[in-house]
Amino acid sequence: MSKKRVVVTGFGAVCPLGNDWPTVSAKLKSCTNAVRVMREWDDIKGLRTRLACPAAPFELDPARYNRKSMRSMGRVGILGVHATEKALADAGLLENQDFLSSGNIGIAYGSSAGTPSAVADIASLVLKRSTADMNANTYVRMMAHTAAVNIGVFFKIKGRIITTSSACTSASQAIGYAYESILAGRVKAMVAGGSEELDASDAAIFDTLFATSTNFNDHPELSPRPFDARRDGLVIGEGGCTLILEDLEFARSRGAHIYAEVLGFGTNSDGAHITSPQSGQMAQAMRLALADAGLEPQAIGYVNAHGTATDRGDSAESHATMAVFGDKTPVSTFKSYMGHTLGACGSLEAWMTIMMMNEGWFAPTINLDEVAPDCAPLAYIRERPVELQTDCVMSNNFAFGGINTSLIFGRFKE
After folding, report:
1. By C-alpha distance, which of 365, 369, 353, 287 is closest to 320?
2. The pTM of the whole model exceeds 0.90
3. Residue 137 forms part of a structural domain
4. Is 340 labeled as catalytic in the residue annotation?
5. 145 is catalytic
6. What is the CATH number of the domain that holds 246?
């Protein structure tokens, strides 16, 4: 019995670089980042970083997004729902309510956490000994699976829901588990991705770990600096991105446009330390994806790196990539443009990687002036985009807690 094939038929995104591919690709080609100084954080005592990447402005249709339909959504839920609306429309499924409610399409979606303001409202119970700040929707906005369930309710999707709240691998795990659900024949299609809203609390969490960029508070265009000798930490971003995955035969039966094929997925755990990444396990996640795809390393023409611009993360990842691919496979990361979008990064980076594969070019890592001596000497794409034809690409993400993911996408071939 031949293995099922899983394809990508729709994308929808909101991110710091823009909300559609022409806008985003123009920013990538111009090597322009979206980092800005957050003067609204100046009154926060103890917060050292002032850099972040808010999502680009977007508009919601008031006929669909009204008080009733949005009462259970914080911003993280709105980002996820809006990205999904765009992806379903792109895939030609938005108006097919019979299918959305049939149980044959499910959801795999993640974020690091729910809406921080809702968390604060519940925390007031502890601090003030009062429920005055809470209401019937406070918990729904706060819970880590708020985006996934709001997507399900908003679009009346009645298939399985897989909620992935694994920090930086939330979206990539979601894509991988969606792929596996379709391979197993449980559903014909899946909504997959992740979202994250920007909040000073996220910056403060990484600030306390000395993992945020603080040396470039007055020069946002110079940070973050993945794999660079002067890297000094990550910059927090926000966004949402949804992919529509389908069984190939189902996609063919309805004449869907196919962007790419999901060829492989690997995920594992370091099982060692919460914040100290293990290079060996990172490499093993990549090998698991290659084995799942039935590919040798030389078949991969480009690797999209996690590349957070943290000391330990960049070093461990670069050496893991070197162990699998050597120093000839081109590598770059998009976090140098839009910061670390946490629960959304895996799907945003997958989208951009697929689109560039199809167009035959790949963006460089900006601000990579001098490769750090503790990072492996990979074939980093630097300074300007490169034209490159390849049929297979890999996108990697690694999260605190030692959660590792690797996804392989291929140019679709009949």
Report:
1. 287
2. yes
3. yes
4. yes
5. no
6. 3.40.47.10
